[in-house]
Specification:
The complex is a heterodimer of chains A (about 625) and B (about 375). Chain A has helices at about 15-25, 30-60, 70-105, 110-130, 150, 155-185, 195-230, 240-275, 285-295, 310-325, 325-340, 350-370, 375-380, 385-415, 420-445, 465-495, 530-535, 570-590, 590-615. Chain A is an all-alpha fold. In chain A, helix 2 (about 30-60) runs antiparallel to helix 3, helix 4 (about 110-130) runs antiparallel to helix 6 (about 155-185) and helix 14 runs antiparallel to helix 15 (about 420-445). Residues about 1-10 and about 545-560 of chain A have low confidence and may be disordered. Chain B starts with a helix and ends with a helix. The chains are: A mainly alpha (about 625), B alpha+beta (about 375). At the A-B interface, helix 3, helix 5, helix 8, helix 9 and helix 10 of A face helix 2, helix 3 and helix 4 of B.
């Protein structure tokens, strides 16, 4: 039962729940991408409120606004929310929306699997966040070091363990889907070395997810056993080893850093050339340096553990591999600057955020090399120096790249441009706020302020810079409000976007804004790295159009309309994700009946999906 | 304490130019945990490595950000702009900017390994100290001297100290920024750390604190190192070896056994169980005459002994809270959080949760658990434990 791209004429009135039903059952990669992004914006705001509360607490010494317990829950949830519920889904959302468009495909390889990934992400996020209402959030840090995590009272850490399992399911399925899509659904002529660098970044990221997540999955299963079944994998009193957890966690955790930043490298590699009106400088070097970073990323995990007493030799080895990553990263930065060099820079919001990204990420990269030196690390690890470093990488890096991408692709997604005036205001508030909030934290760490402390006494010299940092955080919050206002207003007031508002280079600009459900009426044939640019500026007819349904190998020659096969909407993905969530709550509250119900829902949904696939 | 000039040089060049002015405003203040003013060989070696890496970093920062800012301004779009020259790349340039960072990294790595080899150098005639991290205080044992103390680490200047780091519950990290880099105290592991404090003319207090998140009031797990000339240290050891004397007018009711020489390291059970403490027991009918005598009786009958040890007092062998044998010889109480004064002791006994919310003593003692009279007597007893 295949539907065609032309919507069937509807009988009767279209009510509000029809729209909701459309979104809930959608298997369209563009709708799923938008759901990912908007959900992540909500979680980012929640994680930001966590951070703001912490910064207000630390604005003055010996502050008693927050209790230590609440503060510990807030920083645990801030880290977990930002990593798993905001930054990763931002990137997955962009990947979902853009990869088929950039490759000249009609959809992802597995549209229903794609929907399943989203719903497990949403339910996993709600599951984790519900801990605040159900007796206490996780409180052992997003790194959950044993035995603090295994002995932490209450359900908080069980929420964390089970929530991460749920989110892990969605992440791995999504990553496999991206890999398979990239390998199989490229338009004719779209060779690997013609693929947009955004797709390259996402491809490497997906491999990292597939190889890194098993480690955290194993770790959290063992932790669940330790907490609930009295096993002793990480319990020293019964012969376990707390360091085993650290190795399992960081073997995932460090690649995770690259999972969060490699897609941003991709966004920057798309935005800079378009707004410089030049091709990317050193395409192959940027693509292959991502691959190099991906490989090296698996060899550096113990640089998070220089202080655990591994000995100087192990520390030196992990130090060397960590520093080595600076080389491919440096190559990228030089190529980006060379892309700007000699260009005609059009300072619209995407480029402002793009150049802001470069400025801030360089600082994060330099402090990263400093941290890679074990003796220096022994002084600054677990201090605010590291807090500063990760925020230059994730906020100055990932988030600035994300905002660049938002301003760049918003008109493609919604057919309207975001306000340029609000966009500039947003940029400057965030740029100034970011440096005020995080630059002084380097210094705070060096003068001895540990991280994860709910307060600090007077007389340690921390007061002034903490106050500045809090003012910076408030400035960032203001910037975020401007962004939210901008996207809220754009729905009605935004300038209508034409298919190619930025004079773009890649295939997504060859279709309407927003694109039709099937993306392209005709699958384009690609002859260069910048098919849309070439179509506009010479080397004429680089991209050719007419699609021959038979030649393209479509199985749906019987279909009417364009003859483009799209899978029907499906209610099973959300059902399956719901079943997993029921099972997670049941595991949390040790309810055998609940587990049975959850698993039953899961199997029913799997059966439904299978029958749908058979009919398809 | 630090001269303005010294403070200035420490802070200079740390931030980009726009922040230097602001920095000056903060440099005058005291920074007892700064890594920039070292008092030991380990911290000093790290600082000199840090300085090398820092200047390399500043160089890279200035050059790369400089080129970025230049090109970002120089090539902004002008109305007369046509389509710029379409350059796709340049192989020789790529090779050059791969090699340059590699050379810089090689240099930093070499300097790093050099410092690492210095830091693991052999010690001569070290003083051995076993550090046990507890939620949320520090226990210091001197196994060769038979001394146990808490939260204030006395060490002789100019002598190698060899620390064995352990934990009674979760992971902690032992860190005196002015003396040395941090090393974790992990349950089930024994980590080793050595350093030597610089010569001092008088006793010098150096602040440190736990650097690995250890739950609850991790923020309030502070400590002090008291660096003294060798003679003063020996004197301190002698004083700490003495058992606590009984307050006047009190008779020892329990037969004295051998003094607790080395408080046993609590099992590595992750969560130390809190003993059954009945703090509601009535005070004994016969009241000793002196205030500290009454405090002594309260210390016993209120079951303080379940968590705290006092050498010479056989019932008091607990290891959940700090050893109190010579509590009044310390400059601070509550893991470096409060200065040691009768007022602060009263404040602590009145409501431990007000000072350190969620600490373990606070599970037994709440506001109102002890009467003002009892607080007065206990404080007097604590003051007598010199």
């Amino acid at each position: 039962m295949a539907v065609t791209a032309i919507p069937a004429p509807r009988v009767g009135e279209r009510r509000w729940w029809h729209a909701w039903w459309d979104w809930i059952t959608t298997v369209d990669h563009k709708k799923i991408g938008i759901l990912y992004i908007l959900t992540a914006v909500v979680f980012f705001t929640v994680g930001g409120i966590d951070a703001l509360l912490m910064r207000i607490q630390l604005g003055t010494p010996e502050n008693t606004l927050l209790s230590p317990q609440l503060y510990n829950e807030l920083f645990t949830m801030h880290g977990t929310t930002m990593v798993f519920l905001a930054l990763m889904p931002f990137n997955v959302g962009l990947a979902n929306y853009l990869i088929p468009l950039m490759l000249g495909a009609n959809d992802m390889a597995f549209p229903r699997l794609n929907a399943l990934s989203y719903w497990t992400f949403l339910f996993g996020g709600l599951f984790l966040s519900s801990s605040f209402l159900l007796g206490g959030a996780p409180d052992a840090g997003w790194f959950a070091y044993a035995p603090l995590s295994t002995t932490s009272a209450g359900d908080g850490m069980d929420f964390w363990v089970l929530g991460l399992q749920l989110l892990g399911v969605g992440s791995v399925l999504g990553a496999l889907n991206i890999i398979i899509t990239v390998f199989n659904l490229r338009a004719p002529g779209m060779k690997f070395n013609r693929m947009p660098l955004f797709v390259w970044g996402q491809l490497v990221t997906s491999f990292l997810i597939v190889f890194a997540f098993p480690s955290i999955t194993v770790g959290t299963v063992l932790m669940y056993f330790d907490r609930n079944f009295d096993t002793a994998f990480f319990q020293p009193s019964k012969g376990g080893d707390p360091l085993l957890w650290q190795h399992l966690f960081w073997f995932f955790g460090h690649p995770e850093v690259y999972i969060l930043i490699l897609p941003s490298f991709g966004i920057i590699s798309e935005v800079l050339p378009v707004f410089s009106r030049k091709p990317i400088f050193g395409y192959a070097f940027i693509a292959y340096s991502s691959v190099a970073i991906g490989f090296l990323g698996f060899t550096v995990w113990a640089h998070h553990m220089f202080a655990v007493g591994m000995g100087p030799l192990a520390n030196a080895a992990f130090s060397a591999t960590s520093m080595l990553i600076a080389v491919p990263t440096g190559v990228k930065i030089f190529n980006w600057i060379a892309t700007l060099w000699g260009g005609s820079l059009n300072y619209r919001a995407p480029l402002l955020f793009g150049v802001g990204f470069l400025f801030l990420f360089i600082i994060g990269g330099i402090s990263g090399v400093m941290l890679g030196s074990p003796p220096v690390d022994l002084q600054v690890t677990d201090t605010y120096f590291v807090v500063a470093h990760i925020h230059y990488v994730f906020f100055g890096g990932t988030m600035f790249a994300f905002f660049a991408g938002m301003y760049y692709w918003w008109p493609k997604m919604f057919g309207r441009l975001l306000s340029e005036r609000l966009g500039k205001m947003h940029f400057w508030l965030m740029f100034v706020g970011m440096n005020l909030a995080f630059f002084p934290q380097h210094y705070l760490g060096l003068i001895g302020m540990p991280r994860r402390i709910y307060t600090y006494p007077r007389g340690l010299g921390f007061d002034f810079w903490n106050l500045i940092s809090t003012l910076g955080a408030l400035t960032i919050a203001l910037g975020m409000v401007v962004f939210l206002v901008n996207i809220a207003l754009a729905r009605r007031n935004g300038e209508i976007a034409n298919p190619d508002p930025w004079d773009g280079h890649t295939l997504e600009w060859a279709t309407t804004s927003p694109p039709p459900p099937h993306n392209f009426d005709a699958i384009p044939v690609v002859r260069s790295r910048r098919p849309v640019w070439d179509l506009k500026y010479g080397e004429a007819q680089q991209m050719t159009a007419p699609r021959d349904a038979k030649a393209a190998g479509s199985a749906d020659v019987h279909d009417a309309g364009h003859g483009i096969h799209l899978p029907p909407p499906s209610f099973y993905p959300i059902t399956l994700a719901f079943g997993l969530t029921v099972a997670s709550y049941a595991l949390l509250y040790s309810s055998i009946i609940g587990i049975f119900i959850g698993i039953s829902i899961v199997f029913t949904a799997i059966a439904g999906l299978a029958s749908q696939a058979a009919k398809d | 304490m630090l001269s303005f000039g010294k403070g200035l040089s420490r802070c200079m060049g740390l931030a980009p130019a726009l922040l230097v002015v602001l920095l000056l405003a903060a440099c005058g203040t005291e920074q007892p945990q700064t890594t920039f003013s070292t008092q030991g060989n380990n911290a000093r070696e790290i600082l000199s490595l840090y300085n090398i890496i820092f200047y390399v970093a500043i160089g890279v920062f200035v050059v790369v950000e400089g080129i970025l800012i230049y090109s970002a301004f120089r090539y902004r779009r002008r109305p007369e702009d046509g389509i710029p020259l379409q350059i796709h790349g340049n192989q020789p340039i790529e090779i050059i900017w791969t090699i340059i960072p590699a050379i810089i990294i090689l240099f930093i790595a070499t300097m790093t390994f050099r410092t690492q080899s210095i830091l693991v150098a052999e010690t001569t005639d070290p003083l051995r100290v076993t550090v046990v991290g507890h939620q949320w205080w520090w226990e210091f044992q001197y196994p060769d001297q038979g001394v146990v103390t808490a939260n204030e680490l006395h060490i002789p200047a100019n002598r190698d100290i060899e620390f064995t780091l352990q934990s009674a519950d979760v992971i902690h990290s032992f860190w005196f920024p002015r003396l040395s880099g941090k090393t974790d105290a992990i349950p089930g592991h024994s980590n080793r750390l050595t350093f030597r404090a610089d010569e001092v003319t008088d006793r010098t207090l150096i602040r440190g604190q736990c650097a690995e998140f250890c739950g609850g009031v991790h923020a309030q797990m502070g400590m002090y190192a008291v660096v003294e000339p060798a003679a003063a240290f020996e004197q301190w050891i002698e004083q700490q070896r003495a058992e606590a004397a009984l307050p006047a007018g009190v008779t020892q009711t329990v037969e004295a056994t051998a003094p607790v020489e080395e408080s046993p390291i609590a099992t590595t059970e992750a969560a130390t169980p809190i003993p059954d403490v009945d703090v509601t027991q009535p005070t004994p009918a016969v009241q000793p005459a002196s205030l500290e005598g009454r405090g002594y009786e309260l210390f016993r009958t209120k079951a303080c002994t379940g968590c705290h040890a006092i050498a010479g007092y056989p019932e008091a062998i607990g290891n959940i809270g700090p050893d109190l044998t010579h509590v009044n010889s310390r400059e601070h109480i509550v893991a470096g959080w409060l200065e040691n004064s009768p007022d602060n002791m009263r404040r602590w006994l009145r409501d431990p949760n007000e000072v350190k919310p969620g600490n373990i003593m606070g599970t037994a003692i709440k506001a109102g658990t002890l009467t003002e009279d009892e607080i007065e007597a206990l404080t007097a007893y604590m003051e007598s434990l010199k």
